[in-house]
Amino acid sequence: MNLSKKIMVVDDALSILTFLKNVLTDAGYDVITIADGEQALARLKNFKPDLILLDIIMPGMDGYEVCRKIRQNPADNHIKIIMLSSESKLEERLRGYKVGADDYIGKPFEEHELLAKVRVFLRLKRVEDELVNLNDKLNQQVQIRTQQLSDAEKMATVGRLTAGIVHNLNNPLQAMMSISQILALRHPNISQIKDLRKACDRMYEIIATILNTGKRESELASVDVDLNEVLRDIVELKQADHFFKYSIHTKMELQPLPIFRGVYAHFSQSLGNLIDNATDAMYYQNKGVLTIQSSVTDRLIRIKISDTGTGIDTDKIVMIFDPFFTTKPLTADDNRPTGTGLGLASCKEMIESYKGNIQVDSKTGKGTTFIVELPIFRTGQSVLIEGVSSVLL
Ligand SMILES: Nc1ncnc2c1ncn2[C@@H]1O[C@H](COP(=O)(O)OP(=O)(O)OP(=O)(O)O)[C@@H](O)[C@H]1O
Ligand SMILES: [Mg+2]
Question: pTM for this one?
Fold first, then answer.
């Protein structure tokens, strides 16, 4: 750290240089002595003095000229300059101030006065240096902040535009998906129609991913959730598929539920997966029935999702909540259900994060029921389900 104690003494008289060097060094300053103006300017850059004691009358370049040259360079503007002269004429002092000197000391020096002045100007220099430093730091912070704000604004704009464009693509895509589905049923032998449908599915996945990614942060905020509405939204979204792909009849038996705070996406994705699993289990049946029920006690909300599908073998039922356990292929050339085996694992994690639980009841060849229970905490009039927002989905 610069403690502002470097002093350059410039005088052509060796006796003065020696005297000042001794006095100032004894007082604890870091001193260099220089015998002429040109030299003084040349050493400025390396030594970086905080204060210069500068003789006026010198052979070659005089003190005024040296002072004027120093002040021409903005980087050296903060160096304190005290002029030294044997004559103490007012005119001479004024000329010194005019070329940029800070003060003046007459020869012969009074040692205490000299040291007092040096102390005052070095203190001033220290305060000025601190202000300059502080200012630099503030400027840097302002620049960084401004850059961050403009980056964030750009990203937000790009995000909004992308979400808007992608969202607008969704409607025509839904129409293409339904039409290609109808065409596929009418003309099962035309393979291009199947390809068209697959391309639509792929596009739908991409759009869903982009919209989810864009929404992720805001979607992870807790909001008032009506689970019946979540269930209705899921069924509405999948209705076309249920009818065309699976020939499933859906029964909804929903009792009014209390509103509670939670992350909407947690429930839409978890319950969505249970409904997907149920429909997948009825894929090979002609007339499957999907039953969705909701009910409430004074302690908990209960949601049941039942299917009349394949059921789950006893040896497999212990594994269904394990991550990556699946009996479905990862991809398929036909419409067969595919899977990654992550659905139930993330569903369980989510429900448990709300202090809830998930149970399964299944009979091979008859069907399966998943029961989700979420505890409610009554605080006065309002009902809350508490949970965390960092759940693997
Ligand atoms: N309702 C159900 N009827 C029959 N089997 C089921 C049912 N629900 C789940 N399973 C079985 O449990 C397995 C794991 O289900 P999970 O939802 O975790 O994964 P997935 O459906 O195979 O793939 P993903 O959900 O990741 O797309 C399924 O592959 C299936 O064998
Ligand atoms: Mg699944």
Answer: 0.50
